[in-house]
Amino acid sequence: MTGVDDLRAFRRDGRIVIVGASLAGLRAAEALRDEGFAGSLTMVGDELGEPYDRPPLSKQVLTGWVPAGGTTLPRRRGIDAEWLLGVPADRLDLATHHVRLADGREVPFDRVLISTGVRARPWFVESEAALDGVFVVRTREHAERLQRALATRPSRVLVIGAGFTGSEIASVCRERDIPVTVTELAPAPLVWALGAMIGEVAADMQRAHGVDLRCGVTVARLEGDARGRFCRAHFDDGSTVDADVAVVALGSIRNTEWLRGSGLAAGEWGVTCDTGCRALDIHGRVTDDVFAAGDVARCPNPIYENRLISMEHWANAVEQAKVAAHNMVSAQADRRPHLSIPLFWSIQFGVNIKSVGVPTFADEMLVTQGSLDDHRFVTAYGYRGRVTAAASFNNGKWLNHYRRLIEMAAPFPPPCPTPDQPTDMEPVPAVFPAPALLARGATAVVTGRDPGECRVTAVHQHGREEGRTTTTHMPGTLQRIFDYSARADPYPLYAELRKTPVARQEDGSYVISTYREITTVLNDPHLSSDARHLTRPPMPSAEEGVTSSFIHMDSPEHDRLRRMAMRHFGPPHTPGLVTGLEGFLTATVGSLIDGLADKEQIDVVDDFAFPLPVTVICHLLGVPREDEPRFHRWVNDIMNSIDYNPETDPKEKLDKGVQARMDLRQCLGELVEHRHGRPGDGLLSRLANDDAPDGRMADADIVATARLLFIAGHETVVNLITNGMLTLLRHPQVLQRLRDEPDLVVPLVEELLRYEPPVQIIPWRAAYSDITVADTAIPQGSQIMLLLASGSRDPKRFHDPDRFDPDRRDNQHLGFGSGIHLCFGAPLARRETQIALAELVRRLDRPRLVVDPPPYRRSPVLRGPIHLDIEQGDG
User: Coiled-coil ranges per the record (predicted)?
Assistant: First the structure.
């Protein structure tokens, strides 16, 4: 549609199909007619009735104040549309411009609007979800059924999930004087949306109204009686609760399954769009015939750094529908972006809760008006010194003021507009159960503010920051893995998990814990290391858009880049590299130990293991000696940020890590550029001047490979040395034997890699296609977590696996992984550790532990002590 005449003809005779008879769909249809569109309009919906209002379902309908049939949305005007209701869309064919319905009919279109919204996330065990008395609330039928159940005055209602919907249902139960138990994995209700500080207020409020609130636990099983009725819930802490009704309020799933194979960038995260609501295809290109609006749309918001945001907000759906409708029937130059700031409200326990903006896009928050104790206040949220959101309890009249502050990017903390500002309040960290990043998977790079001119590229993140998880509601297994209390000794937990080799989680991911199944997956060509193959890509790192290393790529690109790197890093082209470094390694280790000679107490981490790998990697790459201190500082800041604890650590710790990554990347880039045309020693120079058959590696890939050595390589060696020294001190007979038999160090390090591996978990792999592992079907796009450390202690593979035995035969551990992604730096890491442990044992004078167990880093992925204090000498 390139000319004015074409546009006029389309506005007069064109065909628009709206898939999703929802709030957004109806308001878009009305807006299309307001805009003068006179062509055919078809509304497709999977429910039989016309669009209705959903917010009252968990409020007025459940109380009985409003019948479910009384929630039909009022019409602003006639829309003169053909309604195809009660049959869902099954497929979108962009080549033929047809929407196929589940009954086989095909509906032609010139332009289509996707407004299919979301559905309630069901209980994850199908047989338990089918029990009489187990409910979700999303549709009229859901609300009507639950209202009838509440009218029978059940002995107790169990609500699973304390988000807004779950909390509103609990409020209705207490209003009707029905006993209610609420379970929430997070520390408090509402923290996923509003943060820990407000979550504590919500928890107090619920308990004050008689709610049996249980936080930090999950429901492990729903039990039914002989008649198939729900009667009891079993929690992961071993406790139970008897109830007649269970309401599953675990969030929602975006309705995008019908778009599979369409070529659109759509998945469980929603339909990716530009600011003008035009859908993107899988290559990040903007389409011009497909638009999206409402809960299913995922659009970049310039106010929030163009992060892709999906919002389940009533007002957002209405505003987005109007923008989409306008742009569908307008010339490029007349189109406009969707810049609405989300507004949300909820009524529960007699309190009117409202928010404006995106509270999760924040690093600080501050009570600016009123009192938390009185449940009447306003809280402002800030990100990097500007106001990004506000939330209120019974004080919503001020939110328009904060909306203006958000639009103006006003400084945070903002001035109080009234005299009731608390005098003793200071900004506090905005603590959420998951990092305050909005995008999952692809994020957007947008150029131009006019949607007629803007270009949007979907940038898929290959990496992730360790210790972060992608789940909205982390199921019990994942919670236990990430629980810091298991860090000192995770092996009893792993033994328990091995009873179920492949365990499906509540969020649809899979945890694999046994040796045979892990090695099968690691060597399966149907498994991907590329996040783009995940249905729900992992949380992006702070370095959006940065070139990833080849460990996050698949064949053939992975093979090509790894082959180019290995030409200069090991066999077969440079078989003597590690051997040639032995003199340097021995001298560096000796120099570090020389500095410990006069110390009665030593921290093996800070004084020895931490500085060693940086010095070695700088030497290997050819970094000038005068630059080495900067690399030590950057790696230190990066490692500290990976170990960041949002509840106790200052945010500067995280900011330093982000800055250090940028500085490291920039410095490496400058070094690579300087090496062009100057062949010399060092891996950077050899890669920059390579003339191999595969060609020369791109500068960005050289930098990514060097960063891989500095970050992953550093932490692996630090943890391997530290875990090794801790294990030897716990096994003094083996320590003495190593002192007497230095050659024992080679098999000893292999046993360490099995017994106390530095890399415990591969956080994710993606299934290219449907696969079966240990008789468990894993769907295409699923996230798979591999517990390497558990596999290396599998008694079906290793005899007496919990015994440290340096004489163990056939020790094919998983310490460095397996398959095409076997650790790139494994030969160097082995030799560094062998020399380090042999020299420490030989030269330290009667070393002994000061604290056992020592404090550990927070990450369950790269596991090792953060400090290892030992004494030597007479003590």
Answer: none
